[in-house]
């Protein structure tokens, strides 16, 4: 996981219960700077429910502050994971914001 600037974060290859605490810290710090989050999802090879829940929570927090979460280049794995939990529309909405 790499933060390229105050508002952009590259997600790790594994988005699961083990990576969520560190990712949460990064997202909270980013939200303290700006309510607009840009998340790059191209490297995600494993995505489980805790990681997806964290992204949904971050998007809600951004919206409550008047901003938004933008998902750039979501991997097939990330897209499939959101589809599996019935939330494929989130990927579509978050990706549209980038384009």
Automatic annotation (TrEMBL):
Ranges of residues in domain STAS: 1-86
Stored Gene3D superfamilies: STAS domain (3.30.750.24)
UniProt name for this protein: STAS domain-containing protein
Annotated source species: Rhodomicrobium udaipurense
Pfam families recorded: STAS_2 (PF13466)
Domain of life: Bacteria
């Amino acid at each position: 996981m790499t933060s390229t600037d105050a508002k952009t974060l590259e997600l790790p290859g594994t988005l699961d219960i083990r990576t969520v605490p560190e990712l949460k810290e990064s997202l909270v710090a980013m939200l303290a700077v700006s309510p607009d989050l840009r998340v790059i999802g191209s490297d995600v090879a494993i995505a489980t429910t805790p990681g997806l829940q964290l992204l949904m929570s971050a998007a809600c927090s951004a919206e409550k502050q008047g901003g938004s979460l933008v998902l750039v280049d979501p991997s097939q794995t990330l897209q499939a994971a959101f589809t599996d939990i019935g939330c494929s529309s989130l990927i579509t909405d978050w990706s549209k914001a980038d384009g």
